[in-house]
Amino acid sequence: MAKVIGGVFTSHVPAIGGAIHRGAQNEPYWKPFFDAWPPVREWLGEQVPDVVIMFYNDHGLNFFLDKMPTFAIGAAAQYRNEDEGWGLPPFPVPPGHPELSWAIIEKLVAEEFDITTCQDMLVDHAASIPLALAWPDREAPVKIVPIAINTVQHPLPSAKRCLALGRAVGKALAEWQGDETIMVMGTGGLSHQLDGERAGFMNPEYDLFCMDNLSADPDALTRHSVHEIVELSGTQGVEILNWIAARGALGDKVHEVSRSYHIPISNTAAAVMVLETEAARAAGNAGAEKTAELA
Ligand SMILES: [Fe+2]
């Protein structure tokens, strides 16, 4: 039976990809952000996930403003990153897991979510950079199921709806009969606004509210409307919707393993968190022992 171990939550600013390509991780500007990752990698080394359910938003690579699904799920065997115009070489993208994708899709439709299924899908920096941070210097040794949430073109789904989507994904994972070790990622945020009169806006107080409640009381994050979240967090800070959905897939009780918060990275409040499920905590570092046996 599959095991859901927890989730990694992170900002996904394109400039992080530039820092990776330049080898700038230890420069004073970048070091506080990259220092968040050794504890994440230590946890991944203990838990050894096989599959990543990736909750993120597309920024115009696969979906543009003329066609913008509220929720879109990849059901492909392969995905790829392409030039997004940031001057970054495309990042490697691990293979898909179409059987699990379709199991999630079947469950979501049965739970009355009207989703878009994508058997051909590009995934942008919001998915590829977090994977590159988690597994630097190599292609992530996992299969992925990408779930794209519209955080770009209004009307956006509510935080309540995104949490419900994540919880429905969690039900699908609980029913999945495979033996994989599964984790989620939620990427984006935290507070930032890239344009308009409030360009440069960040809100550490709201970011702290989100991080404090993500593990123990994610429903607290759904008490704000999307427009209230935009006011609190900035027009792009609303990417917290991806974190909320990912959290929903982890069940009621999770434990915070690590947390980092740093301002600014490219006008963005940059945060990294790891939450671990009760089941993973109870199992201890059985995954590391499994790896040691295989070595
Ligand atoms: Fe973004």
From TrEMBL:
What would be an example GO MF term here? oxidoreductase activity, acting on single donors with incorporation of molecular oxygen, incorporation of two atoms of oxygen
What superkingdom heads the lineage?
Answer: Bacteria
- One Pfam family in the UniProt entry: LigB
Extradiol ring-cleavage dioxygenase class III enzyme subunit B domain span: 8-268
Tell me the protein's name.
Answer: Protocatechuate 4,5-dioxygenase subunit beta
Source species of the chain: Novosphingobium arvoryzae
**Gene name of the record:** pcaH
